Amino acid sequence: MKRVDVQRRGIGMVCEGGRSMLKVWAPEAKQAFVCTREDKLPLTAQAFGYWSSELSLCAGDAYRIELDDCVYPDPASLCQPEDVHSWSQVVDASFAWTDNAWENPPLSAYIFYELHTGTFSEEGTFAGVEAKLDYLKELGITAVELMPLAQFPGTRNWGYDGVFPFAVHYAYGGAKGLQSLVDKCHEKGLAVVLDVVYNHVGPEGNYLSSFGPYFTDKYKTPWGDAVNFDDAGSDQVRDFFIENALMWFRDFHIDALRLDAVHAIKDMSAKHILQEIREYVDELSAFTGEHYHLIVECDLNDRRFLDERSLNGYAMDAQWNDEFHHALRVCAGVERTGYYADFNGPEHLAKAYRDAYVYDGIYSETRARSFGSKTDGLDGNRFIVFSQNHDQVGNRMFGERTSALHSFEMLKLLAAAVFVSPYLPLIFMGEEWGSGSAFQYFISHSDPELTDAVREGRKAEFSGFYEDGECPDPQAEETFQNSKLDWNKLEAYPHKCLHEYYTFLIAMRKDLQALHSGDRSGVRTSVTDPSGMLQLYRSAPGQDLVCLFNFTKQQQHTDVPGLPENAILLLDSAAKQWEGPGTAPQESPSRI
Amino acid sequence: MKRVDVQRRGIGMVCEGGRSMLKVWAPEAKQAFVCTREDKLPLTAQAFGYWSSELSLCAGDAYRIELDDCVYPDPASLCQPEDVHSWSQVVDASFAWTDNAWENPPLSAYIFYELHTGTFSEEGTFAGVEAKLDYLKELGITAVELMPLAQFPGTRNWGYDGVFPFAVHYAYGGAKGLQSLVDKCHEKGLAVVLDVVYNHVGPEGNYLSSFGPYFTDKYKTPWGDAVNFDDAGSDQVRDFFIENALMWFRDFHIDALRLDAVHAIKDMSAKHILQEIREYVDELSAFTGEHYHLIVECDLNDRRFLDERSLNGYAMDAQWNDEFHHALRVCAGVERTGYYADFNGPEHLAKAYRDAYVYDGIYSETRARSFGSKTDGLDGNRFIVFSQNHDQVGNRMFGERTSALHSFEMLKLLAAAVFVSPYLPLIFMGEEWGSGSAFQYFISHSDPELTDAVREGRKAEFSGFYEDGECPDPQAEETFQNSKLDWNKLEAYPHKCLHEYYTFLIAMRKDLQALHSGDRSGVRTSVTDPSGMLQLYRSAPGQDLVCLFNFTKQQQHTDVPGLPENAILLLDSAAKQWEGPGTAPQESPSRI
Q1: Does B52 touch chain A (CB under 8 A)?
Q2: Would you tell me which of A119, A204, A433, A539 could form a disulfide with A484, CB atoms 3.0–4.6 Å apart?
Q3: For chains A and B, what is the number of CB pairs under 8 angstroms?
Q4: ipTM of the predicted structure?
Q5: For B78-110, what is each residue's pLDDT tens digit?
Q6: What domains are defined for chain B?
């Protein structure tokens, strides 16, 4: 029962050459028109509440939609050149691609670099990212992950307040800028991952409810009513997001989508929306001959999201594994408050190495209930791990990166812990040189009441921390500027050394099958009591690796049972080579 | 991570001999006591918010629970002899069982008889049901399904307003009465199915929220906040219902549970509560050596509820299939309003015969969305079908049974349609003789405001039908009395004939493998256009059956391709033998 044609976009304004076709869903409207700056043309009612018309608009033309005497931008607008409240602009989505030779690698080859387009470069644009692709290539990463690009209010936002899921933000360079960036990435052998938000829509400029039942009050989410994936009218809401996923792959040559917080997608249909997206994306693959990856952020510890369709699974390719992060950061000494309270350090990190989920059916004090399922049989490259990402950095009051919280020695240990894991590694922009810039929470809403509400909410969230200083104003331009990477520091001490260390780690991971293999059957761990030394064993045919982690500030001595005499020390993170204190012979503090 | 001991009840008052032990969950309470009529004894705080104490109370003793100066009945009370607001009573749940020889048959042998204890017999008690067991046995049914028995306010209620899930209603005969009934059923070779409600608690006498977070506002249900199966504290809520399910099987020898409206159980845990109930019930089976069946009422058309655990399914044994009913009733001429609007008659009935779900992924106008999944590979005896049940009868303004809505000829056709299906047949008490009694919606709340609200809600629901008369007052004793079966009429015309017809049908189904086999691979259908004649083919080795249904009022002529010359007419529902008009030779109106 296919409702969506994977070969071409079927919603919004489709413009090819000098002709265009508009299709919009407005099931309750009695009349619908498309308005240009000069004209107003009626749309024709179609089945299932759609309205459409062939038009003679060209790329660059402004238009809006009028429903029963009210005028709105197009919910499926590809471009909002002024702001989220005003005119939509016709975009010709064709592009002179030069990436015919590009082949999307399997996820097992992905080494993710998460970046926020607005703060990654001084320019804050796609062009700014393009200028750094050689740098990323040399670092060794293989996949650039872009935080959400959908048009949000103003020019400063993490991206999770986007309200036009089809419109690449104008300030970043719009649709053409993104297409150019992807083309360049592919030229350099880099895959592109795009973060998309299908669980909510931002609080300013959200006109979806004026068009149809995009939301349902059957479920509560952190952002209010849930997106309507299983109530009356949900076929059309589902199609809106399915069309969106297909567009990025087909028209923007994106290689993988990272679906934000899918635990907030509430869907009790017999076919879950993620299953349906999977089906359509696979159909697109069959049409284009390309592979596309679907990655989810999910905090349910539920293997159903990864299991195959034949097992009633949602068949997502991979998921973020926050619990690895939490266990790791507790090892590093982060305060055990909030979600960190559930993690005890090395024992839990060892469990994350073995079992992916720490909470795999056991009782969680923070959640006050038993939580999670076992991941037996799921390959390591179904999970993505990190020592920080935008969330864990930005959701602190001051947006401190690990570099502002931990010692240089610890930074190296954190990095190694990620790169020797059986999971796919992700680093957050600037992490590879220990950038000292914060990544703070910033917005640029035009609605003063909303701005105040966000400000107050932010203050309230951190009310326990007032003694540490004033919460940065999310609306202030300065907060945004403070969050930009200061690339001038890259060559300075100790940033240059850390950068070289990351480059070495990445190369080592690529080189050693025992590291990049997702086979978890060879993963063993042990934790030495009471020193808390963690030993991780990884192996592949002909390769047996032992990784020793000392998260304490003291030198530790440890025995490695069965270590052969001809064992080679591949990396010692505390070595003088990496600006460390050096390690006593035959001893191994802070090293792998 | 087993939290519940399947071998004995671990919640509420457990009394054996002269000793008793009380355990109650009250995680927010600062102090807890058990109060008797003379005394007040402190309970001791245990892990996870439980309180417990050994006591010297005996069976029959009254007790209540005091939390921080407020007194309540025990949420897990086994007996409420006065009402839902007052004293709980200690029950010794042991019983002198005589059913050692009983073996619960497989579901494929179940022929269900759904009854409401209060209105099935003049007495309105378990003793009243016991007195009719020989009658049921002679009719040929194999399983007595009891509508919910949990203590509800007053003495008149369908049972879905129960507020003490562990307390068998005092007015019906209480725990001992039920144990005696089950023992007698087993003696006569009848299985017992109990309807239990785990998706909500009734509106009067619900003290659960005074004890703990039994509910969550994360989800909305038709009854308000959802039962908390996946929020903080949900382990203990889950255990409360798991203990309940285990109790019926272990302490009451119930053979199957019918879980009410599981689509209203909202649980996004990695392990769904139904999966966990399945696991514990299987563990109990391993302990007792008995089989127990779990049946769900579910309107999601989602095979996940039936699929095995290894397929991420919930592994329920069977589900009610309302869509078969809806399609059948439209064939019989019921008004196509409400949920009936989605059904077109013979074509959809044919689909239900073949595919179980009519809506198996196709678009539903009533729901305004695509709905359901395919049931390929699921045996026919995973589905339970009926031409009416308490819901479809009682949810009409006047509570009319099919006998008040359809002709005598149609009643016979409806019955046959159910018994020749590849699914498990269920009849609603009195259906087998076309009882003319209504089954109306009745309550007996003590709260006048609530009573008024129910009255007004009922009137509003049927406001479109006012011209047909006044909505019966649900609180009136008369409404309850009108709903009792009038067994005196059984012997009168045409009831006696219909009763014999049902007896014949049931015997025929048991006799013919082609009918009682759940193998759906031999099921074929065809619908003749424009007459609407439906042909159903069923087969087993050496048996090929053709069933012809004429739902019109006209005689129809139909060809049965390939009918051998030696074919035998097994049943003609229009024959004079069954008080019908007779069928012209070689023609087959209203017959199978």
Answers
A1: no
A2: A119
A3: 97
A4: 0.93
A5: 999 999 999 999 999 999 999 999 999 999 999
A6: 12-89 (2.60.40.10), 108-503 (3.20.20.80)
